[in-house]
Every structure is written in structure tokens, then in C-alpha cells.
Amino acid sequence: MKLVSPGAFAKNIVASVQEYSLLSGRAIGNLFTNPRYIADTFTQMDSIGVGSLPIVVLTGFFTGCVLALQAAVSLKEFGAINMTGKLVALSMVKELGPVLTGLMVSGRNASGMASELGSMKVTEQIDAMRALGTDPIRKLVTPRLVATVFMLFFLTIISDACGTGGGALVAVVLLRLNGPAFFHTAYMSLVGGDVVEGLVKPLFSGFIIATIGCYYGLRTTGGTQGVGKATTQAVVASSVLIILVDFLVTQLMIGIFGR
Amino acid sequence: MTLPTPDLQVAAQPSIEMPPGAAIVEFKDVSIGFEQNHVLKNISFRVERGETRIILGPAGGGKSTLLKLANGLLKPDSGEIWIFGKPLSGMSEREIFELRAHIGMVFQESALFDSLTVEDNVAYRLHEERVPEAEAHDRVVEALRFVELEKAITKFPPELSGGMRRRVSIARAIISKPDLILYDSPTGGLDPITSTTIIELVVKQRDVSNTTSLLITHRLQDAFTLATHRFSQSTGHMEPIPDGKLDPGTKFLVLNEGKIVFDGTTHELTHTQDPWLRAYLE
Ligand SMILES: Nc1ncnc2c1ncn2[C@@H]1O[C@H](COP(=O)(O)OP(=O)(O)OP(=O)(O)O)[C@@H](O)[C@H]1O
Ligand SMILES: [Mg+2]
């Protein structure tokens, strides 16, 4: 491993953050000017949204199941096993739905974007695109950004629903709890603030997945090996950022809604 | 063998506005380096309208870098690059994109879009310009006929051989009838027969459309074929220029270790006294 001086290291980080911010800024700025690549956006929505549906449904469902099982054990000690529905719904909607969906889609799509754009970069397809008069940020990054933010929002809702459904199934079948009561406590426990919190998070995660995936893809150097490296870095960086931003948004929401 | 269609024969009177007396490409004291190592040092040269400028030099001499600079894909560390009589340094990103509409580029490794068919690759620029589908298709067929690859229209680039990819890449570069074509090693890594086919295409494009071009090659043989042959409309093939004459528009630029070691005509190159050049040409 090559050692670098702390000064050079810090400079590198600042330069990367600056480059990343510029890329994100331009990707957003492109939304407001022509030309727009609507067809590319729909293609991406299909690949990100529809393509991620199976894993999102499965993770959401089994997370809900596991939550119900675990919650029941603890709640029983306090004689509050009827609160299982409340716990499952709150955890899913506020926290686990958004975060797990974000992580799943990050693993699937941030890596996909980084490797696709990375291969295009190392085979000079990005340069060719520029030589043909197309801005690669406009053509490649903006459609992915729009598609990811839009689709992740709905994927999160689906995940929340599957999770609550999975929890209910476990509660009724394994824990012998009352089904309608489960849904009633679940429904009553959710207030506006919880739902808003749960729905704001995927907007941030979607932004992170698309911009980080594209950023690492577009700065790929060093042939196929570089593509592999870019892919790994994109998944690591976007996953960590998703969890970090989740913490910040939660903090902010507690400040606003008081819970 | 089909004759070039009339549409491609329109003499290239640059459709872009240029100040009188301006060169198509002009480098003024251009230098560029990557991470402290200097790739091009104080490069200056002019390419006039209608000229075919052949760039020769050992591998790693900065030839591809020079071509990317001419297209604004890279920015020089110092010096000025003028394209069609306008300085690249004074242009916004948007203006450079507009300028590139007049420049065709063939990349060293073809750089076709893997996810698009040959048709969509060649039509890429037309689709960007929102040319109606029917017209775009006709022009793609015409361009592919020019490179004799009509059969491959529905294929994807990974299904093609290296030589076919190079030809598709040429078709993609010429479809918009550019005022300047940049060929980066169009014959690199190909067998002699395929190389000759590609050089014939370049000669055809030069003599039929009079397009100004910069062409990098590693094969001296290709360079001299370009200088000594012309395209015959009647036979549809290239033929040697009679009496051993040379094509007056074909000139040479030789780069070595980032410096220009030769800039002049074919005659001057073949009669050079420079020992390094003589050794290189052997
Ligand atoms: N993006 C880049 N980053 C770092 N170094 C680069 C980059 N592009 C080119 N170089 C370096 O610049 C030098 C010239 O490269 P260039 O591709 O222009 O050579 P070339 O003359 O086209 O060679 P060849 O004949 O093999 O194609 C090489 O030493 C190369 O390592
Ligand atoms: Mg090269």
C-alpha cells in the first residue's frame, strides 16, 4: 500500500467532495433545461423500480416477520404482547422500511450504475458521447437520479406494507394473536409525523444511490480492474451515507415532530 | 461495390462560419501533462481547409492526446487551440458541444456504445438532433453502405470483428457530414487487407467530400498509400496517382516524446536529412 502525507490525503478528500458536489449540482440543474432524456428515465425506472421489486418485497416481508417474533418475546415480559402490531408498524414505517430498502437498492443499483458507467468510461464510450455532442451528465446521470428518487419512494411504501403484512402473519399464525387487533394497534399508533419521516428518508437515499453510483462510475480509471474497484467503493460509500443521513433525518424529524 | 451516393458527394464547404484566412485547426504553443509527466510540450501547427494531416510517431508520444485536445475532450495546461477560427478556451461547455456537431471522431478502440445496435450507434447524433426516424434510417443505410456494412445494421457491437467495429465507427463519424474528421489509428491492430479497406474509405471520404481530417497511424505504409493514391469515381476504388505524383492536400506531422519533430509535405518527409526521422522511416 502506498502511503500518502496527511496533507495530500486531506486535499484529495476535499477535491473529491467538490467534484461530487459539482456532479450532483449539474445533475439537478439539468432538470430545468432542455434537452431532457425522458425515454432514458423510463428505462432506468424499469430497471431500478421493477427490477428491485422482488428483493424489496422479500426483505420487507421477512423483516416484518422477524420483528414480530422478537417484539413478542420482550413485550410478553411486560404483559404488553398486544402492542406487537404497534411496534412492528412503527419500526417498519419509520426506520427499517426506508433503510433496508435503501441498502438493498444501493447494493443492486449503485453497483450497477458504477460498473455500467465505469465500463463506458474505460472503453472511451463516455468520451465518444461527448465527442458526439451529448453531455454525459445530462444523458446518463440525470435520468438515473430522477428514476432512483422516484422509484425508491414507492419501493419503500411497498416494503413498509409487506413488513407489516409479514408481522401480522407471524402474529396470527405463530403467536396466536388477534389479527384485526394487530392492524388496529398498528394503524392507531402511526401519526402524521411518522409517515412523513418514513417517506422523506427514501428521497435522500435515492439521491445518494444515484449520485454516488454515477460519481464512482464516471471517475473510473485503470481498465477492468478499475471498474471492479469503482463498483465496490460505490456500494460501500452509498450504504454508509444512507445510514448516516438516516440518522440526521431522524434527528431532524424528532426536532420537528417531537417523536 | 456501390458508388458513393450523390448526397455524400456534396463538396464540403464548411457549414460553420469561419473568419477569412483562419485554419480549420490551429495549435499555438500547446502543452499538457498528466500528474507531472509532460505529454505534449509547446506544440504549434496549422491544418488548412481540405488538408489531410497524417500524424506519425512512436507509441505513447501523445498522438491520441493531441486529437482529444482538438475536440475539446481534454483541456491544455497552457497554449491556445483554435478550431474553425475560434479559440476553444473562450468557449462555454455548451458552445463546445455545438462545435462538436461539426467534428467527427473515430476513436482508437472504436468506442461504440455496447448497449445500442449498429443502427442506433450510427444514428446516435441524428437521434440527438431529433431527425425524423425515417430520414435517420435512410441516412444510416447510406453511411453503412459507404463503409460496406449494410448487413450488420441490426447487430450489436460485441458481435462484430475489430475491423467491422472500426468501420461502424467511421460511419458514425461521417453521418453528420462533419467539416473535420479526427481518425485515431483507424487501422491499428488490423490485418493488412482490412487496413487497406479502411484506408480506401479514408481516401474516398477525402476525395469525394473534401473533408479536412487529422489521421493517426502506426503503419507508414498506410500513410504513404494515402499520399500516393486517389479515389476513382469510375471504378469505385482507389488507384495510384499517375506519374508517381503525390496528393497535394496530404501532409505529415511527426511527434516524438511530446514534441513535433516534423511538420511538412510528403516530399519533404521522404527527403529529410534528420537522422532520427530517417531511422524512424526505415
Ligand atoms: N488520461 C490519462 N491519464 C494519465 N496519463 C495519460 C492519460 N492519457 C494519456 N496519458 C499518458 O500520455 C502519454 C501519451 O498518451 P497517448 O495516448 O496520447 O499516446 P499515443 O501517442 O496515442 O500512443 P499510441 O500510439 O500507443 O496510441 C502516455 O504516456 C500515457 O500514459
Ligand atoms: Mg493513441
TrEMBL record, chain A:
Pfam families: MlaE (PF02405). InterPro entries: ABC_MlaE_roteobac, Permease_MalE. The keyword Protease does not apply. The keyword Repressor does not apply. It comes from the Bacteria. GO terms for molecular function: phospholipid transporter activity. It is a multi-pass membrane protein. The chain crosses the membrane at residues 53-73, 145-178, 198-218, 230-257. It is found in: Membrane. GO terms for cellular component: ATP-binding cassette (ABC) transporter complex. Keywords: Membrane, Transmembrane, Transmembrane helix, Transport. Belongs to the MlaE permease family. This is Phospholipid/cholesterol/gamma-HCH transport system permease protein.
UniProtKB/TrEMBL annotation, chain B:
One of its GO terms (molecular function) is ATP hydrolysis activity. Gene3D superfamilies: P-loop containing nucleotide triphosphate hydrolases (3.40.50.300). It comes from the Bacteria. Residues 25-282 form the ABC transporter domain. Keywords: ATP-binding, Nucleotide-binding, Transport. It holds the Pfam family ABC_tran. This is Phospholipid/cholesterol/gamma-HCH transport system ATP-binding protein. It comes from Granulicella mallensis.
